[in-house]
Amino acid sequence: xxxxxxxxxxxxxxxxxxxxxxxxxxxxxxxxxxxxxxxxxxxxxxxxxxxxxxxxxxxxxxxxxxxxxxxxxxxxxxxxxxxxxxxxxxxxxxxxxxxxxxxxxxxxxxxxxxxxxxxxxxxxxxxxxxxxxxxxxxxxxxxxxxxxxxxxxxxxxxxxxxxxxxxxxxxxxxxxxxxxxxxxxxxxxxxxxxxxxxxxxxxxxxxxxxxxxxxxxxxxxxxxxxxxxxxxxxxxxxxxxxxxxxxxxxxxxxxxxxxxxxxxxxxxxxxxxxxxxxxxxxxxxxxxxxxxxxxxxxxxxxxxxxxxxxxxxxxxxxxxxxxxxxxxxxxxxxxxxxxxxxxxxxxxxx
Length: 350
Hints:
Helix content: 55-70%
Radius of gyration: 61 Å
Number of strands: 5
Order of helices and strands: HHHHHHHHHHHEHEEEE
Number of helices: 12
C-alpha cells in the first residue's frame, strides 16, 4: 500500500512540474481547459437578450395625416418625440425626413404669408434654426440649413428696403439715400431673379430704388425724367396701396409743376343786341304836292326820302307826285330809301 502511495505521489509531482514549465499553463485561454479537466462540467449562464422597442406604426400614420393636412406644426409635435426617443433606429429614417420636411414646410408657409413682414420672416427663421438643432448633422441638417439661408437673404433684402424707405421719409440727404441704394440693389436683384419660395410681385422691392433715381433726376433739374421714374414706381402697386403713397405724391407734384400754363383768353367782344327795325306801310301820296308829300312821310317816321323828276308826268300838274318807289302799301323799315317821282311841267290835265 505504501508503494502505491509513493507511485501516485511521483506521478503527481511529474504532472505539476510539467505544467509549471509550460508558459501557457496559466493563460486565460487554458483556464477553461484546466477547469474542465479538474472540475465537473457546469451549465453556462444564459446571455441576456435586449428588449426591442415596438415600431410606432400607428403613431407615424397619425403624424403623416397631420402633414398631409398641412398641419405642419402638428406634424412637428407628432414626429419629434418619436425621432428623439430612438434617434439611432435606422427604421425611423423616414420619420426623420418627414420631421425635417415639416420644419421646411412650416417655414415656407410663414414666408409666403408674410407679405414682407419682417416679424413673420424672423419667425420662419427661428423655426428653421430649431429644426437644424434637432438634426445636428446629416442630410436633414443640410436641408434645413439651406432653407434657413434663403430666409435670411429675404430678411436682409426686406430690411435693407425698409431702411431705404425710412431714409426717404425722414428727409435724409440724397447722398445717404444713394449710398443705401447702392448697397440694396444687388440684394434686390438676386431675390427678384430667383423668386424664392414662389413669392410673387417681388419687383415691387424696386420701388424705393426707383424713387432714389427720381430724386437724383429732379436734383439735376431734369423734372420730366423724374416724373417718369415716379410714375414707374407708382405703377408697381395697385391703386390706393399705402406702399405707393410716396411715389404717388412725387408723381402728382411733378406733374403739377410741368403742366403748361394756360394763356388767359381775351374777353369776348360784346355783341350788340339785334334791334328789329320799325316797320310801317308806305301811304299813297300820288297827286300830292311833292314837298308836302315828303314832309308828310317824314312826320310818319320815314327818314330817307329823295325827289326825282318824272319825265313822263302824264296829265298831272307840275310838282305833283306821279308815283313812289317802293310802291304804295309796301311794309318797309323807316330808314328805307323812298323815291318820290313828280312832274316837272304841267300836264294835259292842268
